[in-house]
Structures are given as C-alpha cells and as structure tokens.
Design brief:
Layout lengths: L1 E3 L4 H36 L1 H36 L9 H17 L4 H11 L6 H33 L4 H27 L3 H11 L4 H24 L4 H26 L6 H17 L9 H13 L5 H27 L3 H12 L1 E3 L2
Antiparallel strand pairs: 1-2
Helix pairs in contact: 1-8, 2-3, 2-5, 2-9, 2-12, 3-4, 3-12, 4-5, 4-13, 5-6, 5-8, 5-9, 5-10, 7-8, 9-10, 9-12, 10-11, 11-12
C-alpha cells in the first residue's frame, strides 16, 4: 500500500533550518580544509610534491584512472543487482549514472545528500524514479556495511600493530566495539525482520519527543526497513554477491594506494601499509563528506598514517594529492555527462524533496 506524506510548514521549517545549519557547517569546514591544505603544501614543500607526482608520470596516472574506472564498474554492477523485478538496468545505464553521482558527491558541499537521487534521475527513462531510488538505497546499504567492516578491520590492525597513546587506544577500541555491535545488530534485524528502528521512532513520537523531526522521519525509517527486508525476502541469493562486489571495491582501493606508494615512497611499501591508508581514507570520506573533494582533511589523515608507518615525510600529502587529481578527472567526466543528459541541480533537488515526501509501506 502506498502512503503519501506531505511536509507542512510545521515540519518543513525545522528541516530548512537544519539544512541551513548544515550548509553553514559545510562552509566553515571547507575553509578549515583549505587552511589545512595550504599548511601541508607549505610544510611538505611544493618541490617535493611535484617530484613525487613526476615519479608517477602519465602512464602511472593512466593506470590510477583505470583502477578507479574498475571501482566505478564494481559499484555499477552492484547497483544492477539491487534493482527489483520486473524492472532492470543494464551496465550502460548504471555506469554513467554512478559517475554522475560520484561527481556531485565530490564537488559540492552536502553532495552526498543528492548523489543517490542524481543516480536515480540519470536512469529515469529506464525505470520509475521510486525504483531507481530504492535500488540505490539498497546498494548503498551493502556499501555501508562493507565499509564499516573495512574501517573496523583497519582500526584493529592499526591498534594491534603500532604503539599508540592510551587515549587513542580507548577511542579506537570504542569505535571497534560500536561498529561490531551495529553490524551484528543490523544482520539480526534483516534476518529476523525486526522493525525495532521504526518502533523506537514511533514510541518517541507518541511520547512527544522530537515530534517535528519524527513527524515524517519515522515513516522514512519504516520505508527503509521495508525496502531492505523486502529485498532480503525476494533475493536472498544476491546478498553474498553484493557483499563480495563491495569487497572488490575496497580491494581495488588498496591496490591503488599500493601502486602510488611504490612510486613515491623511498622504501618498498607493504600491503598492510596500503590497507591502513585506504581504511583511514574511507573513514575520512564518511566523516568529512561536508567538505568538497575532502580538501585538507585527506592530506592530514594520510600524512598522519604515513608518519606512524615511517614511509617518508611528505609521502602522505603527495599520495592524497595524486588521488585528488584522479577525483578531479572523473568529476570532470561526470560534469560532461550531466551536461550531455541535460540534468540540472534544480531537477535533482526537486526529485530529492519529492522522494522525502513519499513513503511506501508493505
């Protein structure tokens, strides 16, 4: 049964205020990121960075672009498996749509809020918008699960492999425990089809807590539960392939880091070093998505890990800048695809707001 939920002034005003606060935070974080970026360029030395980039060369950078092309292909394939019958999407549909979504996610503050909608809008001529949105949400869930496990594994290996201050040990241990608990709880919820999340939201709403947020938010939580449980009920055989595709996505990221380090690091890098750097990069991507291109924070995280691993001063900054150049390239490709398909940010935002006001319940 389909239930339409329209946001009135009472619920719309808080949402707009929250969005304004997020935008303001995005501006502040971006300015701080630019400051960090300038600091690391200055402290590392422009000459050292250009020397590192020169060691990679045109052929090396082409290989880096190819590796990311494979990563995009993996996400596009996973998205195909997430589409409900009788609808289907081909690789030629999902591949450019993923590039478009990644471009918007990278280049604008709060891009992550519209990147999924942009993918669905990009394939709107192939499947209805609601089908595109639900399939994107399903694929994103598997990506989030694999990313959580990946970050957790990186934290465990890092914690056990290097001496750290006691405060860092406590922080990392706490993060590991929370991620493991969330993964186990999430798995049980899917298998048992528990509606605990929406039940908690309903209970809070009925008792007068967070009523403005939960007026429509609790229905969105119920929609999300029904989406995932319905997919598990209909396609249990797709769960393992979808997870394996996300594992391949992260493995390709490790391969990319390992290749770059082999070119710019004074010593021979290990797979564990590449694993640590990629897991930190994923964590930074999750936490600092407000900042376009992760400017500054990516360099800071990479340089911190490089110093711990003793891979050479400035190696982390050079690594982050090379990977940022790769992001710029594929973002440019995404912009060209957006122009070619006649998409506009206004259309994508309109579709995003529309999706927030529609709820479909079993």
């Amino acid at each position: 049964m389909a239930t339409q939920v329209s946001s009135g002034n009472e619920t719309g005003a808080p949402a707009r205020r929250a969005m304004k606060r997020l935008k303001a935070a995005g501006v502040v974080f971006t300015l701080c990121g630019l400051g960090l970026f300038g600091y690391f360029i200055y402290s590392t030395g422009f000459g050292q960075i250009t020397d590192g980039v020169a060691k990679i060369g045109v052929s090396g950078f082409s290989l880096i672009l190819l590796i990311y092309l494979l990563r995009i292909s993996v996400r596009a394939t996973a998205w195909r498996l997430s589409v409900y019958e009788p609808y289907e999407l081909g690789f030629r549909d999902t591949f450019p749509a993923v590039i478009i979504g990644e471009a918007l996610s990278s280049m604008i503050p709060l891009g992550i809020l519209v990147s999924g909608t942009a993918k669905a809008v990009a394939v709107r001529k192939k499947v209805p918008l609601v089908v595109g949105l639900s399939s994107v949400a399903t694929e994103n869930l598997f990506y989030s699960l694999a990313t959580s496990i990946f970050i957790c594994a990186g934290a465990v290996l890092f914690l056990r492999g290097f001496p750290l201050d006691e405060s860092w040990v406590v922080v990392i241990d706490t993060m590991i425990v929370l991620i493991v608990l969330l993964i186990v709880f999430g798995g049980l919820m899917v298998v048992r089809r528990w509606h605990w999340a929406s039940g908690i939201c309903d209970a809070l709403y009925n008792r007068g807590f967070f009523t403005r947020v939960l007026e429509s938010g609790r229905l969105q939580v119920r929609l999300f539960e029904n989406l995932i449980y319905g997919f598990y009920r209909r396609y249990p055989g797709r769960f393992l392939p979808l997870l394996l595709l996300q594992v391949v996505f992260h493995a390709l990221g490790i391969t990319e880091v390992l290749f770059i380090l082999s070119k710019i690091s004074p010593g021979l890098p290990s797979i564990s070093s590449a694993f640590f750097l990629e897991s930190v990069s994923r964590l930074i991507t999750v936490v600092f998505k407000l900042i376009p291109f992760l400017i500054g924070v990516d360099e800071a995280g990479a340089e911190f890990i490089v110093k711990v691993l003793a891979l050479g001063a400035g190696t982390g900054v050079t690594l982050a800048i090379v990977r940022k150049a790769r992001i710029f390239f594929w973002t440019l490709v995404g912009i060209l695809l957006i122009i070619k398909r006649g998409l506009t940010l206004r259309e994508i935002r309109r579709a995003h707001k529309h999706s927030q006001g529609e709820v479909t319940e079993d």
